[in-house]
Automatic annotation (TrEMBL), chain A:
Family affiliation: Belongs to the leucine-binding protein family.
Keyword field: Signal
Record flagged with keyword Thylakoid: no
Name of the protein: Putative branched-chain amino acid ABC transporter substrate-binding protein
Gene3D superfamilies tied to this protein: 3.40.50.2300
Lineage, highest ranks first: Bacteria, Bacillati, Actinomycetota, Actinomycetes, Micromonosporales
InterPro entries: BCAA_transport, Leu-bd, Peripla_BP_I
CDD domains: PBP1_RPA0668_benzoate-like
Keyword Signal attached: yes
Domain called Leucine-binding protein: residue spans: 39-381
Automatic annotation (TrEMBL), chain B:
Protein name: Putative branched-chain amino acid transport system permease
Main location: membrane
GO BP field: amino acid transport
Originating organism: Micromonospora lupini str. Lupac 08
GO cellular component, one term: plasma membrane
């Protein structure tokens, strides 16, 4: 191969470069976020391909449902929603976010499934000064001044259910989860609050058992250890395929009669269909359940079911709420809803009405101060569904 | 007295993992057999093998409705679909010389990526539900422990499959022709059997095996976006551990993987992330020369 490029292709490259440059200056001439005629550009970044695409699609559909039920407007302005694919993580999320923030010049960014993707996109938010109203993954972030989340922090589900498990289980509890950041956070939330409530873990060394992720597809050896530990209950967190394997194998194992408590993702959405009967009676903790009895939720669930099969998940709900947050913040930002103005208004929202019940942003973490619910997988008509059986703690810092 | 009483108690927690290791190992054997068969006997490296298993798995999920008839139907459809995919692969591999492993690997891996995406596009990103007949869905008592009924039955079925496979390769005319075609393709051609037909037959048989494993193994390694990769990885570990020389080697390697993944994890949970690959490295360090000889000979 020669080191010099032939003259023709060099000319072509120069031509393309010129074209790209003109295109980007043309974009730069626009006012950020607004596209004229009282409309506003919002960027939605979610995994529409890859491992997390079922969550990503719920997030897209939740946001679009809010727009569809509000005449396509947020804060009285017609929304130009630009959707981009986050893929499997930061490697694909960052270029997609760069396009949304620098080329499309959106007024606010929402969505983002993976915590790693949020961490990757974070420097871009600081650079472009655009607020993120994230609806799922939330990593450790030092400066949250432009970052808001309508979902939860990973250690909150476990912290919310710990007291209930302590009160209802006579004996020690075995803690088991997947060996990655999300698993560590989820299980730490439980074990710390459980220890504070005076509970004891059944794990031999008093520490959570972490299973290799995603390599573990057979949980039988772990179940044998749980049996040998004499545990009276199990607390766990798994999601996706691992959740299906864990629940199906649990139901056929020698510990099938030991009560199973879990972070709600174990039985949330598509995995519950794959688990089928094996998931019956599992207790889980989550910030939402489609059978919550309030006016917002009845409207939300009815609108969702009119367009989709099955019930909405917590992922769709968080994205629906992200749209609600932007709706009010853009409305309050006045005639010139710049990214800065929208960000300032999100901080002043106070209570937000939601299908999950009213909640508000924590001033410290910019994530919800919200109520958590105890749910159990029960028969609902022909299908199994997560049914609320009680209220747990209200959590948020 | 105390020492005597402690004996069974020390063993007791490991009875089920040990039994499960057999079930899991036999599944790995049936899943890997097609790849080892194509690679070892016909010298075709098929990295789309995991995808063939996934075809069987998705067929099972789509066809099974909890009845015995649907199980038979799923097995038939899954085997045919995966065998057809094997024939398609043979067609794509026609211009590639036998033994040109790099080209075979690139081509079949490309097919695996594309096929995997098509499967996910067709069946959706969520893991589908696999409904086995009710009689197999529960658990049964084994030596004072509960164990999944399906896995117990699977041990019997997979053993029968392994025996049938062994007899086919060793004792039937088709098996002999395949083995002969590897040793001396020209002589086989002189006998009036086209090597192309043998290649198509071998890939179809490998596909059929993978399809059968996919259907029967669906309740254990279920269909999903990662299934093809999981099965391919396990199959390649079988090749490394068991070599390509004999079916007994393959079976022992698969059973070893099963026990490492269950009994090994139960005994040494903190080493779970690297147990399998540590075993593989150990075998490579000790046996690499033997493997190299075999590869050079084919």
């Amino acid at each position: 191969m020669s080191l010099t490029t032939p003259a023709r292709s060099r000319a072509l490259a120069a031509g393309l470069l010129a074209l790209v440059l003109t295109a980007s200056t043309a974009c730069a001439a626009d006012e950020p976020g607004t596209t004229g005629g009282g409309s506003i550009k919002i960027g939605l970044l979610a995994s529409l391909s890859g491992t997390y695409q079922s969550v990503g699609k719920e997030i897209r559909d939740g946001f679009e449902l809010y727009l569809d039920t509000h005449d396509g407007k947020l804060g009285g302005r017609q929304v130009d929603l630009v959707v981009a694919d986050e893929g499997n993580g930061a490697a694909t999320a960052v270029p997609a976010a760069t396009k949304l923030l620098k080329q499309d010049r959106v007024a606010a960014l929402t969505g983002i499934v993976g915590g790693g993707s949020v961490a990757g996109v974070y420097p871009l938010l600081q650079e472009t000064k655009v607020p993120l109203v994230g609806s799922n993954g939330r990593p450790e972030i030092k400066d949250v001044s432009r970052v808001w989340h309508t979902s939860y922090l990973s250690d909150e589900p476990g912290a919310a259910i710990a007291q209930h498990v302590r009160d209802n289980v006579k004996g020690s509890v075995y803690a088991i989860g997947p060996d990655y950041q999300g698993g560590w956070d989820e299980l730490r939330g439980f074990t710390e609050a459980f220890a504070k409530a005076g509970g004891t873990l059944a794990n031999p060394d008093g520490k959570t058992t972490f299973t290799p992720f995603p390599a573990t597809t057979n949980f039988t050896p772990y179940f044998a250890r749980i049996k040998a530990s004499g545990a009276q209950a199990v607390y766990t967190f798994y999601a996706g395929s691992a959740a299906v394997d864990f629940v199906k194998q649990y139901a056929q194992s020698e510990i099938k009669d030991i009560p199973l408590y879990a972070a709600g993702f174990l039985t949330e959405g598509g995995v519950l269909n794959a688990q089928g009967e094996a998931a019956r009676d599992i207790f889980s903790v989550l910030n939402y359940s489609p059978d919550l009895d309030n006016a917002e939720n009845r409207g939300f669930v009815a609108a969702w079911k009119a367009k989709h099969d099955g019930s909405p998940t917590t992922y769709a709900l968080a994205s629906y709420d992200a749209a609600a947050v932007l709706d009010r913040a853009i409305g309050a930002a006045g005639d010139d809803p710049t990214p800065e103005a929208i960000n300032a208004q999100i901080g002043k929202l106070g209570q937000i009405a939601s299908p999950r019940g009213a909640w508000q942003f924590s001033t410290v973490t910019h994530s919800p101060v919200q109520k958590w619910y105890l749910r159990q997988v029960r028969q609902d008509g022909r299908a199994l569904s997560n049914t609320v059986v009680g209220d747990l703690a209200t959590i948020g810092r | 007295m105390i020492a005597v009483a402690a004996g069974p108690n020390r063993i007791d927690p490991y009875v089920i993992p040990a039994l499960d290791g057999v079930a899991y190992g036999l599944l790995v054997f049936v899943a890997a057999a097609g790849l080892v068969f194509c690679f070892g006997v016909a010298n075709i490296l098929n990295l789309a093998h995991g995808m063939l298993y996934a075809i069987g798995g998705y067929t099972a999920a789509a066809v099974l409705d909890g009845s015995w008839a649907s199980l038979a139907l799923a097995l038939g459809v899954g085997v045919l679909a995966a065998a057809a995919a094997g024939v398609l692969l043979a067609g794509l591999l026609t211009p590639v010389a036998t033994g040109n492993h790099l080209t075979q690997a690139l081509l079949t891996f490309g097919v695996a990526l594309a096929g995997g995406s098509l499967l996910v596009a067709g069946f959706g990103p969520d893991d589908p539900q696999v409904l086995v007949p009710a009689a197999l869905d529960g658990s049964v008592q084994v030596a004072g422990h509960r164990y999944a009924a399906y896995r117990l039955v699977f041990i019997v079925v997979a053993t029968a499959l392994a025996a049938g496979l062994y007899l086919t390769v060793r004792r039937t005319r088709a098996g002999m022709l395949v083995r002969a075609a590897v040793d001396d393709p020209e002589m086989v051609a002189c006998l009036g059997v086209s090597p192309t037909r043998i290649r198509v037959g071998v890939l179809a048989a490998g596909g059929a095996l993978a399809g059968a494993a996919g259907v029967l193994g669906a309740p254990i390694i279920g269909p999903g976006a990662d299934t093809a990769d999981t099965v391919l990885l396990l199959s390649l570990v079988v090749v490394v551990l068991g070599g390509l020389g004999s079916m007994v080697g393959t079976l022992l390697a698969a059973l070893a993987i099963g026990e490492i993944q269950t009994l090994g994890v139960a005994l040494l949970p903190s080493a779970a992330p690297f147990l399998l690959f540590a075993a593989m490295a150990a075998v490579l360090a000790v046996r690499a020369r033997g493997l190299a000889l075999r590869w050079a000979a084919t």
